[in-house]
Amino acid sequence: MNAAAEFKKDATRITRDLRHRALIQTALGKYVVARDAKKSKFQNWQEARQTAAEIKWDAINHLDKHLIQFAEKLEAHGGKVHWASNAEQAREIILKIVADKKARAIIKSKVMTGEEIHLNDALEKAGFEVVESDLGEYIVQLRHEAPYHFVFPAMHLTRGEISDLFQKELGTAPTDSPEELTMIARRVLRGKYIAADIGISGANFAIAETGMVSITENEGNARLTCALPKVHITLMGIEKVLPRLDDLALFLPMLGTAGAGQAITCYNSLYGGPRQPGESDGPEEFHVVLLDNKRTHLLADPEQRDALHCIRCGACLNVCPIYKNIGGHAYGTTYQGPIGSVITPHLRGLQDWKHLSFASSLCGACTSACPVKIDLHHHLLQSRRNARGQKPLWWEKTAFKMFAVVANSAFIWNTIKPLARLGQIFHPLIKATLLDPARVWTATRELPKVAPQTFKEYWRTRK
Amino acid sequence: MSEREAILGRIREALTVPAPVPGAHGDGASDPVSEAEAAIHISDWLPPVGESFEDQARLFAANSTDLKTDFHLLDNREAMLAKLQSIALEDGWKKVGSHHGALTDAAIAQLGLPVCDTSVAYDVNHLESCDAGISECDALVAQTGSVLVSSRSAGGRALSALPPHHVVLATRSQLLSDLPSAIALLKSKYAPGFPSFFSFITGPSRTGDIERILVLGAHGPKKLTILCY
Fold this sequence. Notes:
The complex is a heterodimer of chains A (463) and B (229). By secondary structure, chain A is an alpha/beta fold. Among the domains of chain A are: 42-293, NagB/RpiA/CoA transferase-like (Rossmann fold, 3-Layer(aba) Sandwich); 394-461, no CATH class. Chain A is built from 24 helices and ten strands. Chain A has helices at residues 3-15, 18-39, 45-61, 63-76, 87-100, 112-116, 119-125, 135-142, 159-170, 178-195, 221-225, 248-260, 295-299, 315-318, 321-326, 337-348, 350-353, 355-358, 365-369, 376-390, 394-408, 410-430, 439-442, 455-461, and strands at 80-84, 105-108, 129-132, 198-201, 205-207, 212-217, 231-237, 241-242, 267-271, 285-291. In chain A, helix 2 (18-39) packs antiparallel against helix 12 (248-260) and helix 16 (337-348) packs parallel to helix 20 (376-390). Chain B has a single domain (51-228), classed as NagB/RpiA/CoA transferase-like (Rossmann fold, 3-Layer(aba) Sandwich). Chain B has helices spanning 3-14, 35-45, 53-67, 77-91, 102-111, 124-128, 179-190, and strands at 70-73, 96-98, 115-117, 132-135, 139-141, 146-150, 165-170, 175-176, 197-201, 206-207, 215-216, 223-228. In chain B, strands 1-12-7-4-2-3 form a six-stranded parallel beta sheet, sandwiched between helices. Chain B has a four-stranded mixed beta sheet with strand order 8-5-6-9. Chain B has a two-stranded antiparallel ribbon with strand order 10-11. In chain B, strand 2, helix 5 (102-111) and strand 3 (115-117) form a beta-alpha-beta unit. In chain B, helix 4 (77-91) packs across helix 5. The N and C termini of chain B lie far apart (59 Å).
C-alpha cells in the first residue's frame, strides 16, 4: 500500500476511536490552558514572535556563514564536526565512531533526526545495545513503535497500558500511579547511563557565535547522557543554528511556553566541547553530525523556506483539528502535524506525500500558534498547487473547465440550475454508493438542502 | 569534494533566490531588525521583572513555589549553613557530593559527612550513591526562577544531575533580573575560554510523559533546594 492509501485507512480508523479522542482532547486541553497562562506573562508575545521570526530568518538566509562559524568555534574547543548529506552518510559516521571506540552500550536522549535516519535500527543491526532515556521515548521503544508526537512521544497511552508494558518487558508489579511508573523507568535507566560507553543526543539550537549546542529537556536524561559516557555524539539538522548566544534569551522561554506551557523548561543546557583542561567530568570526545538530508531542497524553495525556522516546539500539532482527530501515527512521518505535512513532501518527495497537504481544513490555527510565525497553512495550499502543477489530474481539470463554461454563461447557468432541485429528489437513491460522484463527502455527511426558490425567482414574485 | 563543501555548495545555490522577510504575508512587513535592535528588544518582550532587589527576590521566590523548588533567603552565611545542617539531619544524609569553592568548603566543614569531591576525577557510582549534591552556581535568574550553573562553577556536569537532591548555595549578589542579563554575565565572565557545559536549571527534574501528569524526579534530582544569603 502506498503512503496515501495507508494514511487514509489509518486516519479513518482512528477518527472513529472515541477512547483515543478522549485521551488526546484531555491531554491537549491541559496544554492549551498552561500555554495561555505562560503566554500572558510575556510583555508582548506578538512582538516576541516577530523578533524570533526575524532572528531565524537571518540564521537560515545566511546559513552557510553561520554553519562555518559554528564548526570553527566548536572545533577550536576540541569538538569534532562531521557533515552528512543524507541519512546513509550520517548512519555511517555514527557507526564508525561507535565501532572505533569498541563500544557496547549506547544511551540516547531524544533525537528526532535519529528517527529520521532510522539510527536505532542501524545500531542494533550492527550489534549494539541502544536505550532511549527520555521516558516517553523509552516507553515507545519498548513497544517497538514510532513516537506519537515529536514532543510528547507516548501521549496516546494510558497509565494502565504503560503498567502492562512494564510488567511484560521489565517484570515489574502493576501500578496505576504515574509516579511509580516513572520511578521504575528511573531505576532501570540509572544503570544504563552509568554502563553506557556512548551518549547520543539531539540539539534544539546550535549557537554559531560560540560553537555550542543547546539542549532543552525536562527530565534530566539528556544531562546524564551528555555527562557520563566517554563519548558524546550530537546529531542535528543543519537548520538548527542561531547566530548569537544572546538569542537564547528569547528562544528558550518561547520554546518552553509554546512547546509545553512552561515559562522555561527544566534544563536548558549548552555543550561547547568535550571535557576541557581542569574539568573533572564530561566526555573525552564530542562529535557533532550536521545532517542535510534534503533540507537544502526546502531551502531552495524561497516560498516555503521559512519552514526551516521551525524550532520543533510542537505547538502546531497541539492546536490542529486534524492532528486531534487522526493522532500522530496516522501521518506515517517522523514529524507529525502541520509542520510535518509541510516539510515531509520536501524531505521525502512531493508526489508520495502530497496527500498530507490535502488533509487540512486550512483553518490557520497552526500559523497563529507558531512561535516563529511560519506561514504553515499557506504552505499547505502552495504544496497542493505544486503537486497538481507537476502532475495534473485529468478529471479535475475537465471538471473545472466545464464549471468555467457553465459559470460564464448566464443562459447555461439558468437552464441547468433547476436541475439541482430535481437532482436532490433522486440523490438519496444513490447516496454514498459507487454511482454517487460526491460519495467521499456524502458517506458521512448530509448534503445541504437546495433552496425551494432562487433569489431571482423570489425577487420576481415578491409582493 | 568533501561533504562539507557539497552541503555548503547546495546552501549557497539555494540562497541565490531571496526569501520574503518574516511577517510579509502580504501585510506590509518591515525589514528584519538588526542584531543590536534584537538584543535591545528581547528584554522588552519577555515577562516583566521588578527594578529593586526586593522585587526580584520576591519574583524568584514566587517562581520557585510554582516550580516546586525549595528556596530560602537567609540573613547571613551562618544562617545558611545552619539551614543546610537542619536539612541534612531531617533527611538523614549519610554522604554528599560536592566541589571546592568558598561556600561549599564551608558547608562541607559544617556537615562533617563523607564527601565525594567532584573537583577532581571521581567514581560515578560513588556520586550516584550520595544523598545530595551540594554546589555553587554562576547566577540566579529572577525572571524564570532558574539557577545558572557551569562545569567550572558547580563541580562539573554530573554533580547537579546525578544525586537525588541538588542543593545550591548562592549569595544575594548573584541574583540577576532576566535571561538577557544572565547570558551577558556568561559572556563577560568566561568568553572566549568558555567551560564545556552550562545549564539553566529551573526546578527539580520533571516529566509529564504519562497522561501529561506532572511527576518530579524523572531522571535528575527529585528535589532542588536553593539557599541564598
